[in-house]
Amino acid sequence: MSTTFEGKRALVTGGSRNLGPAIAHRLARAGMSVAVNYRTSRSEAEDLITRLDTVGGQRHAAVAGDMTKPDDVEAVVSQTVTALDGPIDVLVNNTGPYGMTPFMDMDEDEWDRVWDGNAKATYLATRSVVVGMQASGWGRIVNISAVSAFVRNRSIYGLAKAAVGILTEELALELAPEITVNAVAPGQILESLEDLGEFAADWAEAVTARTPAGRLATRAEVAEIVYLLCTPAFDLVTGSVIPVDGGLRLPRF
After folding, report:
1. Exposure check for the chain: N or C terminus, fewer CB within 10 A?
2. Which of 98, 123, 157, 227 is catalytic?
3. 157 is catalytic
4. pLDDT above 70 covers what percent of the chain?
């Protein structure tokens, strides 16, 4: 399935590392101009833009800013509109710092970092782009949740990602009919296994064994779902949280 989005402009928050580049690349392949937001990873973001420039003739940009700070968010959106020569049509709220320290051992700084980076950042970015989407009569917002939202042993990260799911449903009601709002909830992503080795030495084997599909999702597969949610085939899908987890979230006795 392929839909051309030439003339559409996308902002991918937290887009310079991990899942972000895969999403940015897929949207660029569909014809969108893409702005990649980053907080500290400037070189990675600029390298990504160089790669995106080889995909097609559309304009791309790297935009710095902390998506948990209202002033930064407004600046990111303003710079994106200027760089891409028009309002944002597609917002992918990909910012989502991780943390799973038990609540009784967690300090307030970790709570704020994970909660603000997931729930608050999603709210602030969405609030900043909807005026342009409503004016044009079309918009797509895709939030990145996680399978951790469906379980109860992922501490503040699971709580924050569950909040992203509820926020997705609330915003779908509030922003209809011009804008659809959905979320994608990946399970463990294959390319990110190395990042989680510090939490458990046998993480890779354990999570694969508990995934009914027998393998883990790839970044490209998750990015494809993000793209599909922007296509006409999904015009009537809004307020949904779509797991891409091979069945990992399903309860077992």
Report:
1. C
2. 157
3. yes
4. 96
